[in-house]
Amino acid sequence: MLQPFTLPLVLLLLLLGAVARAQPAPERAHRQLALTLTGNPAAPVPEVRGAQGIGITFHFDGPIVEQSVQVDASRIRVVDVGPKSLLVELVAEPRADEPSEVAVTFADEEQQRAVFRIVPHPSEVDAWVKVTRRTEQLGEACQARLDELRARCSAQSPTAFVRSGLLPPEGILARTFQSYSDSAGGRVSDGGVSFRGKGWVLLDVVLSNPTGQPWTPRVATFKSQNGTPVTVRRLTSEVEAIPPGETGSVWVETDEPPESAGGLFTLEVSGADGRTLRVGNVKLAPRAQEAKR
Questions:
Q1: 137-185, pLDDT tens digit by residue?
Q2: How far apart are the C-alpha atoms of 108 and 62, rounded to whole Å?
Q3: pLDDT tens digits for range 204-214
Q4: Structural domain count, the chain
Q5: Which among 20, 85, 77 has a CA at the least distance from the CA of 54?
Q6: CA 218/CA 236 separation, integer angstroms
Q7: Domain of 66: which CATH number?
Q8: What is the CB neighbour count within 10 angstroms for residue 112?
Q9: pLDDT given at position 195
Q10: What is the Cα–Cα distance from 279 to 276, expressed in whole angstroms?
């Protein structure tokens, strides 16, 4: 049986617990934050202050790949993604010992990947975050880039090409291939030319963009129609993005395929937005024969 003084004490504890649970979450001041990304992988991950139930809008200085946004869905909800903006909302309070992260990929060539860490703060939240990338190169980095460009220019001379051994005694062989329509990708190849030298192949392909959005070629894969893969060395585009309804040239440099690959190949060019163009009728020039001495 309870003692006379025990009942009031129990009631007092229950009342205090109810009052504590009824206390509203502390209000946090909304502030604007400006972040500058340096592109240095050794730099610390930028921190953004957040709180449960409060949206955070990121505004970027360049276009982003909307499908590239990555968050922990158990902590962060993606509300909206635009060409240059991202709105997220925290569904749980961020933890200092285990911060949540937001990752996004830019659609251009400048510092393609960006990651932000959401951290707690007792009185402030970054409701608007302006993200700017610092693209200037200073000091040693600038000098290294200048040296690279100078070396590239000298390597493009006819003399350097012959001395490199890339020109076989028989010369460079070429073969044209006709236009090809990729119904799945929504884009069209207006045909092109394949060049073949000593240990290399160069594809000069004209691509059409009949869609209503610009298309930026980024990555190429090359394989024979019997499934033999061929290493792609580099892809170079005539323009940064092919405008809607227009054409642009793309140059794809690859290793020389093995003899077993045959002479008919498939080229796939993927854009920054994830859309892919497939050219399934690429014909290579026959393999050069050793010159008779």
A1: 445 555 666 666 666 655 555 556 555 666 666 667 788 888 887 665 5
A2: 7
A3: 988 888 878 88
A4: 2
A5: 77
A6: 8
A7: 2.60.40
A8: 17
A9: 87
A10: 10
